[in-house]
Design a protein that fits this description.
The longest helix has 25 residues. Helix 3 runs antiparallel to helix 6 and helix 5 packs across helix 6. The protein starts with a helix and ends with a helix. By secondary structure, the protein is an all-alpha fold.
């Protein structure tokens, strides 16, 4: 296997683009090579197979969609109340909207994991680790609510992200006077996160 970290990262990012646009069935080494603008056969020198490429896409997406450490530090200077949780959720929505392809890639990974038990095990492990990290962060930051709050908030935000990035028209006008995304994020947080 070839070891050129920049080329590998470019191929993985090209894989994300293909996955988001074509779905898992369209994720071939040839498609990745074409998306990355490299000679045919290049991806096969970097990955042992599709499963290896999917695992590396999973890792890359978690890095691409992770919060900016400076933004986190800035937010953590605020009072540890419901409005801070809302600010974190707005940041999540902004990151997913900004990297729509990355988030759609994550959704495609979920779908592919339903068809492939070997991918399901590894992907379940990485998503569960993210959820547990969110719980740990919430507790250590002293935010209102506990693990149950984080779990329900996770589920609600996952639904909002899914609708917003795949069928945004579903949410338009569903709640009179509620502006899609901002007001819906606020309502989710107000409904789930207790007052301090």
């Amino acid at each position: 296997m070839v070891s050129n970290p920049e080329r590998r990262a470019a191929l993985v990012d090209a894989g994300v683009e293909v996955l988001a646009r074509e779905g898992a069935r369209g994720l071939t080494f040839r498609a990745v090579d074409a998306e990355a603008g490299v000679p045919t056969g290049t991806a096969s020198n970097y990955f042992t197979g599709r499963d290896d490429l999917l695992r590396q896409i999973d890792t890359r997406l978690h890095l691409r969609l992770a919060p900016d450490p400076d933004k986190l530090a800035e937010l953590l200077t605020r009072p540890k109340d419901r409005s801070l949780v809302a600010a974190f959720m707005h940041d999540l929505m902004a990151r997913a909207t900004h990297d729509r392809t990355g988030y759609l890639g994550l959704l495609e990974m979920r779908l592919e994991a339903t068809r492939r038990p070997e991918l399901r095990a590894s992907y379940t492990k990485s998503v569960r680790a993210d959820l547990e990290e969110g719980m740990r962060f919430h507790r250590e930051a002293g935010l209102p609510g506990g693990d149950e709050t984080v779990t329900v908030l996770y589920l609600a935000m996952l639904g909002l992200l899914l609708e917003h990035l795949t069928l945004p028209g579903v949410l338009e006008g569903v709640l009179p006077g509620a502006q899609v995304l901002d007001d819906l994020v606020e309502r989710i947080v107000e409904t789930i996160v207790p007052m301090t």
